[in-house]
Design brief:
By secondary structure, the chain is α+β, with helices and mostly antiparallel strands. The chain contains eight helices and nine strands. The chain has helices spanning 82-85, 88-104, 112-127, 132-147, 197-208, 211-214, 221-239, 244-252, and strands at residues 3-16, 20-27, 31-37, 56-62, 71-79, 152-156, 170-174, 179-182, 192-193. It has a five-stranded antiparallel beta sheet. The chain has a four-stranded mixed beta sheet with strand order 6-8-7-9. A hairpin with a 3-residue loop joins strand 1 (3-16) and strand 2 (20-27). Helix 2 (88-104) runs antiparallel to helix 8 (244-252) and helix 4 (132-147) packs parallel to helix 7. It is elongated.
Length: 267
């Protein structure tokens, strides 16, 4: 029977029967996999305190003798990311990223670049030194690029006029076409989201710049807010579903500052 040993991020855990857990893992070696952790709910030695959401594990699993899920043999904690789970807002962001990966990725599809991206944003979120809203923009733009769904932010999707053309006045992003529309090609009946030229430039840099450098740049609050509205509309539209975790994020985010603390009344 084949054995797989690889680092993995725990995306989802579901109780199965009285004692077992079914885990969705995103692995460095083979992408998304589902495994069963036998007796995980009552084990005090093998899995106690290890199988926590968003943590990075070194797992060993083995194919089942039957045709069922692979069986998790061992899980060693490499990065607990405990600070994320202690913060409601940060948990909401991490849940959104995990759901995007779990929804889009196919089983056993190797996606090393997406694995590295997910570990990077979880690491930065756990450190609490970067605005989580900016991390969220970065993750969504890079995720869209990897998924082949990245919006065209370089020229009008109708007339092909480039963004840098002085005559090009941006109307917004045409959601069905997945690209910019200029004022001359504006479709009053089409679904679109408005974006300023400055926000477009910021999104381009978030999609293409070095991860560590991008993480340390400053962005205007207005640009972050505008980009946030755009991406959280664009991503569900092109995924074909509204992630549950995004609804939760939208509900709790207005009541908290960037560190996840409740906003004082009257502010």
């Amino acid at each position: 029977m084949s054995i797989l040993a690889t680092p993995a991020v725990l995306l989802r855990r579901v109780e199965y029967g009285d004692f077992d857990l079914i885990l969705t893992l995103f692995t460095e070696a083979t992408g998304k996999i589902s495994v069963i952790a036998k007796h995980a709910k009552k084990s005090k030695k093998r899995f106690a305190g290890v199988l926590e959401l968003f943590s990075v594990l070194k797992i060993t699993c083995q194919a089942s003798r039957q045709s069922g899920l692979p069986i998790l043999q061992e899980a060693l904690l490499e990065e607990p990311f405990g600070a994320i789970r202690e913060n409601m807002l940060h948990t909401a962001y991490a849940s959104y990223w995990a759901e995007l990966v779990a929804t889009w990725a196919e089983e056993a599809q190797q996606l090393e670049s997406l694995y590295r991206l997910l570990v990077f944003v979880l690491t930065e979120l756990d450190r609490q030194q970067m605005d989580p809203a900016l991390l969220n923009l970065m993750f969504q733009m890079r995720f869209l690029e990897i998924a082949g769904l990245c919006p065209n932010l370089n020229y009008c999707c109708v007339c092909k006029t480039g963004l840098d053309d002085p005559s090009h006045h941006v109307s917004g992003v045409d959601l069905p076409r997945g690209g910019l529309r200029c004022h001359g090609c504006e479709d009053q009946d089409g679904a679109h989201v408005c974006l300023s030229r400055g926000t477009i430039k910021q999104l381009q840099w978030l999609a293409e710049g070095d991860l560590n450098r991008v993480a340390r740049l400053r962005y205007s609050a207005q640009g972050v807010s505008e980009a946030q509205r755009f991406l959280e509309t664009f991503v569900p539209y092109h995924l074909g579903k509204e992630p549950r975790s995004l609804n939760v994020l939208r509900q709790i985010r207005p009541a908290m500052d960037t560190s996840g603390r409740p906003v004082a009344a009257g502010r």
